[in-house]
Amino acid sequence: MCRLAAYIGTPIPLQRFLLDPPHSLVVQSWAPQELRYAKMNADGFGLGWYAADGQPATYRNILPIWNDTNLNALGRSLEYGLYLAMVRSATAGNPLGLGNTQPFFDRELLFTHNGYIGNFHADTRLRIDRELMPEIHADIQGNTDSEYLFALLRQLLHQDPELTIEQALLKLCSRLTFWLEDTEALLNFVLSDGERLYALRHALNHDCPSLYYTTDDDSFPDGQLIASERLTPSDYWQPVPEHQLLIIDRHEPPELIAL
């Protein structure tokens, strides 16, 4: 399990998003309030943004986020209009390592996952292996269910270039429902194509993990946020409804799509 956060809006220093909020991801790494299967998120962290060339860039570390002495300098130096970030609590069978540290990315997408798939390595991983093209499979660097889910999402988008990201996410969930039957899976995703944020709050045979969003936080007057736990005490945070996909665009009202 992990804690996730994302921002989209007017460019802001990374510090305002990652370090300054009262219940920032740094705080959630050692004092989460709604983490159900762990006490801390100390198994690494990562953040992503879109560089001047329009492609994703990431910074990842296997140390706890509070141990990274580079963050203050990065917080002052980076200024972008879109960020994704996570702090990690590793699950059994998925060891520490940069290959297992999110966000994952390709030339277009940044992807994060909070959750797990039961019996993943003995079952679902083998099913995904059979679906993937060699070039997509070759990009996998770790062994987490999260990275394999991202690979499967990329495969679905490659197979049908007309498929939108929201359609691909719905198709991915349908595929998992068929495969997993009675197996537990927690499937909170937050991802971006550089123009929008997509946040899925979903689970199979289990309660959904927490996920919130706000479009009216006074600390971010020209931005919108998504997070596993509210970053600020503002009353404008609201939960993403269970089993729904939230789409946030800089220029449009938030959109919710039921699975």
Task: Describe the 3D structure.
The protein has 259 residues and is an alpha+beta fold. It has a single domain (2-258), classed as Aminohydrolase, N-terminal nucleophile (Ntn) domain (Glutamine Phosphoribosylpyrophosphate, subunit 1, domain 1, 4-Layer Sandwich), CATH 3.60.20.10. It is built from 7 helices and 14 strands. It has helices at 14-18, 25-30, 71-77, 120-131, 134-137, 145-159, 165-180, and strands spanning 2-13, 45-50, 56-61, 79-88, 104-105, 110-117, 185-192, 196-201, 203-204, 212-214, 223-227, 238-239, 244-249, 252-258. The protein has a 7-stranded antiparallel β-sheet. Strands 5, 6, 7, 8, 9, 13 and 14 form a 7-stranded antiparallel β-sheet that branches. Strand 2 and strand 3 (56-61) form a beta hairpin. Helix 6 packs across helix 7. The longest helix has 16 residues, at 165-180. The model has no long low-confidence stretch (mean pLDDT 95).
Question: Could you name the key traits of this structure?
Answer:
25% helix, 259 residues, Glutamine Phosphoribosylpyrophosphate, subunit 1, domain 1, 7 helices, alpha+beta, 7-stranded antiparallel beta sheet
